[in-house]
Amino acid sequence: SPPAIIAPSILSADFAELGKACSDTMGQGADWLHVDIMDGHFVPNMTFGAPVVTKIRPHVDRPTGAYGRGTFDCHMMIAEPKRWVRDFQKAGCDLYCFHYEAALSSTAADTPSGTSTSQTSPKELIRFIHELGMQAGIAIKPKTSVDVLWEILENPVVEERPDMVLVMTVEPGFGGQSFMASELPKVSALRKKYPDLHIEVDGGLSEKTIDQAAGAGANVIVAGSAVFGAKDPVEVIAKLRDAVEG
Ligand code: DX5
Ligand code: ZN
Q1: 70 neighbors 60 (Cβ within 8 angstroms)
Q2: Pick from 96, 110, 181, 235: CA 20 to 30 A from residue 211's CA?
Q3: Residue ranges around ligand 1 (CB below 6 Å)
């Protein structure tokens, strides 16, 4: 099964010192940087967009290959995921993870006029992300059944298949919420069918909840408050990694 990947969420970092926070967390043992993009529509909170990603990107060395150290894992909690793919690619995003729930109702505004309003299916969006040279992730909220993913994962067209699935373990929108163990059967079901798939969990992960998540089969671990609120982030990141590696 795939390696342990620890992805601190910079949502809990000091936004006034974001570049430094990013380089610090990498120096403390992080593998990826989890970058939470919220638009105030898909979720009831806002963060920042591509211009901020462009400015923090030089503070972290680019990964040398897919899934490598320094991967910018952009979690797109936004209503129109197709619309922002190009901007985020230019900003230095390596893995563009959109929400299944948003893809269904998204408008395709990537035309020069920006007026096209065709629906975007997850597989079309995944293909588009791949065409721009990024990895593609698909996220599901707690109320979304894992069953919506089987058809997408079983697609015989490899360019239209996701590289990662993100199972939310809180309702997206805010850091520091309580971990929902109720979501772990989704992780187990995915891991059983796909031994090599990158499965990410996000929300409420800490030294207290990591064993459950790792036991279910998650290998990409997002942690915001647990890392940025820690006295010793090096120790927390190491403990998260040890739990996944078993
Ligand atoms: C929540 C975000 C998470 C958040 C996690 O909507 O997607 O990435 O930063 O924060 P913690 O780890 O504090 O639950
Ligand atoms: Zn996130």
Answers
A1: yes
A2: 96
A3: 9, 11-12, 34, 36, 75, 170, 172-177, 202-205, 222-226
